[in-house]
Amino acid sequence: MPLPAEVHEAIERELRARLVELVTAGADVVLDFSFWSRRSRLAYRALLGPLGVVPETIYLATPRAVALERLQKRSHEHADDYALAADLAAEYFDHFEPPTADEGPLTVLRATERQ
Prior knowledge:
Number of domains: 1
CATH topology: Rossmann fold
Helix content: 40-55%
Shape: globular
Order of helices and strands: HHEHHE
Strand order of the largest sheet: 1-2
CATH superfamily: P-loop containing nucleotide triphosphate hydrolases
Strand content: 5-15%
Number of strands: 2
């Protein structure tokens, strides 16, 4: 992390194609993606709108200190345990744009230190 731009774009293209394929087939889909920016969330809504889908955003609101501590405690033994330098993790957190209800259906869950 971060991924090279061409790798990120290739993953994004594949993800979008698979999402459209599944939704068109009538499947319920959970897309676990960072969606760190309002722009990216709105782009996926625009992709799904013509298919008659109104996505719901589930936002796990986590305090900065908790999120950064959890990242540093990762064992990095699993494929999804991305190793992020503390300063990069903080930068990512600080640039996250929390979703708002004016973007569309939104459920906010509050993280605690025990979760």
